[in-house]
Amino acid sequence: MSDPTRAERASSFGSRAAAYAEHRPDYPREAIEWGLSGARRTPRHVLDLGAGTGKLTLGLAELGLAVTAVEPDPEMRAELGRVVPSATSLAGRAERIPLPDAAVDAVFVGQAFHWFDVPAAMTEIGRVLRPGGVLVPMWNYEDESVPWVAEYTALGRDGARRPAATDDLRQFEHPAFEMFESDRFRHVQRRTAESLLETIATYSLVIVSTPEKRQALLTRLREFLASNPATANGEFDLPLQTLALRARRR
Ligand SMILES: C[S@@+](CC[C@H](N)C(=O)[O-])C[C@H]1O[C@@H](n2cnc3c(N)ncnc32)[C@H](O)[C@@H]1O
């Protein structure tokens, strides 16, 4: 793949916003509830930061919480407004959150923490969180303990590293927060081979790639899915694991 900058990848999602909304997985309710239970008092008002098309925003709203979604990309925000009209949606970034001090009880971040300037974002998140509130970053991963999934994701990653999470937990330490805890939650997404390929096409590394490289990757994956017994015939369950972190505001 070419060598696009991190900033280019971080701001690439809007061009695939509709496909993102349709094909990316949502988050299991147990993971969201585990995150919320890290707060000292029951959260009522939560912020979804880097909210994208509202995958996690919807899960939070369905629990009856008042949700504010902050997202820099206007095309992603437009999808979010369609998917979760009850959420307050604001333009903004993790490093400069458009909320007053101590405004929310919890801050959730789905699949976006690795795009933030983490020390600056943690300071801002600490500012908008009430004392005893909780920060909950989470990531969905294909469940590579399943052999065909491991083979598929290795092919799809094409040598690239997957988003940093647990390996780099120590560097997320911040004086405003207690230490991070983590847990994992299994879930599945009902898929077809074509929808899986649509998902791959929403990955930042694939979006910023050249058309030739993108096509070669999709062809390789299509051939794999067509020859793999678990995915060759119609719909199947894609096994996923959600890795959730939580750290309480001091
Ligand atoms: C992979 S998407 C995740 C979207 C959504 N949270 C989800 O779980 O589906 C990453 C999102 O982070 C946003 N983003 C990138 N850099 C950001 C930053 N510095 N602050 C806030 N959001 C950012 C992107 O615009 C994109 O919508």
Describe the structure.
With 250 residues, the protein is an alpha/beta fold. The chain has one domain: Vaccinia Virus protein VP39 (Rossmann fold, 3-Layer(aba) Sandwich), CATH 3.40.50. Helix content is 35%, strand content 23%. The protein contains 10 helices and 7 strands. Strands 3-2-1-4-5-7-6 form a 7-stranded mixed sheet. The longest helix is centred in the last third of the chain and has 17 residues, at 211-227. The relative contact order is 0.19. Bound molecules: S-adenosylmethionine (SAM). Residues 47-136 form the Methyltransferase type domain. Belongs to the methyltransferase superfamily. Keywords: Methyltransferase, Transferase. This is Methyltransferase domain-containing protein. GO terms for molecular function: rRNA (adenine-N6,N6-)-dimethyltransferase activity.
Characteristic terms for this protein:
binds S-adenosylmethionine; 7 strands; 250 residues; 23% strand; globular; Rossmann fold
Concise description?
Belongs to the methyltransferase superfamily. The chain is of the alpha/beta class and about 250 residues long.
